[in-house]
User: Which sequence fits this backbone?
C-alpha cells in the first residue's frame, strides 16, 4: 500500500468515518481499514518462504520426463502414482504447465555458417512406393541436401543410390 493511502485512512478514521466507510472509500476490506487506522507506522510486507509441497520430492523426476517428451499432466500423474505419489491432479497440472511454459520460452540458437561452407545431406527410402521402369520394379529413394547459409533445399527422387550411372 502506498504511504499516502495509509495516511488518508488514518485521517479519515480521526474524522469519525467508520471502518466500513473507509473500506468502501479506499476499495479495501473493513478489517484492513481497521488495522491501518490503528497502525502507528506505514505497514510493510515481508515475503515468507514458500511452503513445502507433496510434489517437492518428485519435481526433479517430472523435469526429466518433460525434457525427454512432452508428456501431458494426466500422463505424469499416472507415472507419479506408479511411483507411489499421493499428489492430486491439480498440483501436478499447475507444475507441469509452469515447466512447459519455461521450456517453450527457451531460446533456440541457430547454427550459422558462411556461404558455401556447410550443407546437410540425407537419404530416405520409401518402402510403400515402387517404380516400374522397363518392366522392372525398383525401390524409390529420396536425396535431400540443405545448404547451411541460405537454408535452401534440393530434393531429388531416384531409383538407384549408386553414384556412377550406367553408360
Assistant:
Amino acid at each position: 500500500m502506498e504511504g499516502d493511502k495509509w495516511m488518508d485512512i488514518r485521517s479519515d478514521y480521526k474524522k469519525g468515518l467508520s471502518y466500513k466507510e473507509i473500506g468502501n472509500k479506499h476499495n479495501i476490506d473493513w478489517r484492513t481499514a481497521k488495522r491501518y487506522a490503528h497502525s502507528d507506522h506505514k505497514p510493510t510486507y515481508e515475503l515468507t518462504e514458500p511452503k513445502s509441497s507433496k510434489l517437492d520430492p518428485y519435481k526433479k523426476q517430472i523435469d526429466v520426463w518433460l525434457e525427454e517428451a512432452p508428456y501431458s499432466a494426466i500422463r505424469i500423474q499416472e507415472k507419479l502414482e506408479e511411483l507411489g505419489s499421493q499428489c492430486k491432479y491439480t498440483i501436478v497440472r499447475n507444475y507441469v504447465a509452469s515447466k512447459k511454459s519455461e521450456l517453450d520460452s527457451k531460446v533456440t540458437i541457430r547454427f550459422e555458417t558462411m556461404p558455401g561452407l556447410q550443407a546437410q545431406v540425407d537419404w530416405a527410402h520409401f518402402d510403400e512406393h515402387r517404380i516400374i521402369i522397363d518392366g522392372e520394379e525398383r525401390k524409390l529413394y529420396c536425396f535431400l541436401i540443405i545448404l547451411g547459409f541460405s537454408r535452401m533445399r534440393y530434393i531429388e527422387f531416384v531409383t538407384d543410390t549408386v553414384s556412377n550411372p550406367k553408360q
Summary: The chain is about 40% helix and 20% strand. The mean pLDDT is 86. Residues 3-37 form one domain. The first strand starts at residue 119 and ends at 133.
